[in-house]
Amino acid sequence: MTTLRASGREYTWTNGHTYRTIDWGLVNARWMMTMALHELFIMDPECSDHSPLSLYLAQDEDTRPRPFKFLNHVAGHEKFPKIIEEMWSKRRGRCRMADIWRNLKHIKKAMKHLNATEFGAVEERINSCRHQLAMAQEDMRAPGQPMEKIEAEKQIKLQLEKWLNVEESIMRQKSKVQWLKLGDATTTFFHANLKQSYGVLQPVSEEEVVDALKRINDLKAPRCDGFNALFFKKAWPMIGEDIIEVVQEFFQTGVIYKAINCTTVTLIPKIPNPDRITQYRPIS
Question: pTM higher than 0.90 for the full model?
């Protein structure tokens, strides 16, 4: 076994009086031959007496374009309703389903811009707020501080809390995408109601459409276009009437716009190194 070279702090444990290096990163020769660049970093202990060890590995940069995914924190921005209303009032054609699909494309572009301009560089903003807060509190160690400093500290705390909530929202979405469990919630709703509609010949009501949307969890997997249930819930005052109309039209005619009727199919191998399509398990 070999000890990895470490950087950062010169010790990994302290009780305030004694300083020792008692935590190490150990690897074997095969690991070192397999892995590319690697470095062990001794982090700050914060509230612990032990310093965490962080291992950095060289990775190839992923330059592939990332598909759009609506981020829930964007819906809380004050500009969100206005953007939806503006994008949704674009020119209309003969097919209402096609209109909705085109409007969603316009909204997708606007949401990307809003997220990039108003919520970009979240980690850097958090670090900046923490640094400002540390400097402010260092300057306020003595009692009897003026109200200006107290109010400035309060505003920094509010900004830090805001960006921490944004970061938490993003991480929660990343960790809660449940493709295998969810499948496509709207498709499930459509199939269930198709059976009911053809069985008893009852039209789909507005309440049924709204209730189906409310039953979809905000953190469930998004559609192929990247919009999840929370987007439709937050934008419902502006778009709900049109959505209800096209859903009812679908159940009346049985015709759906081709671009809307899409899904993502992931092939999961049943065996190592499959070479035939029958050796995959499809999950949509």
Answer: no
